[in-house]
Amino acid sequence: MVRSAGWVSLVAGVFALILGIIAFAWPSATLKVVGLLFGINLLILGVVRIIQFVMSPDAPVAGRILGVVFGVLVGLLGILCLRDLAGSIKLLVVFVALGWLLDGLAEIFIAIGDRRAGSGWRIALGLCVTLAAVAVLIWPGLGMATFLLFGATTLCFVGICGIVLGIAGLRARPA
Q1: C-alpha span between 99 and 42 (Å, rounded)
Q2: Does residue 56 sit in helix, strand or coil?
Q3: Which terminus of the chain has a lower count of CB atoms within 10 Å, N or C?
Q4: pLDDT, block means (10 residues), the chain with 175 residues
Q5: CA–CA separation, 114 vs 86, rounded Å?
Q6: How far is CA 141 from CA 20, 80, 115, 150, 165, in A?
Q7: What's this model's pTM, rounded to 2 decimal places?
Q8: What is the DSSP letter of 59?
Q9: 109/23 Cα distance (integer angstroms)
Q10: What is the C-alpha R_g of the chain?
Q11: Helix, strand, or coil here: 124?
Q12: Do 20 and 42 touch, CB atoms closer than 8 A?
């Protein structure tokens, strides 16, 4: 169970890191491409969160239920981004920031409910994503360039942490 969760974290981390690198490499990408990339990321994050909470039998039931709800909401925000790629940039920024906020909170809940090694990394990851989401929500008019900088940086950090957590999960001894 721990190893399969490690693979899920590793794959999600690699995907997020690749998206972050792409966002850094092509900052002048069209809104449709950015909406597509972030929408796909939120959709995958939502599915990953649902899987992680379903596969965490040690976590409290209330935390697992809340985590699954957060995962569903993150996935729905991803679908909304994918549905209207050419929509308002402010609306896209708010959708992505809300998705990050929910994902960051879900990561913090995972860390609190999970007493295994790596909880500190999970809390750091959750705080980083949550703070980035709050910053984007507070200042939505920062412009696309700043949003891409926040987004690409957050995706790279999330990707690196996901890869570290995935490797740690794969190296963990079965209980």
Answers
A1: 6
A2: coil
A3: C
A4: 75 89 73 73 87 80 84 87 67 79 87 74 87 82 68 86 86 70
A5: 40
A6: 21, 20, 40, 13, 34
A7: 0.52
A8: S
A9: 28
A10: 15
A11: helix
A12: no
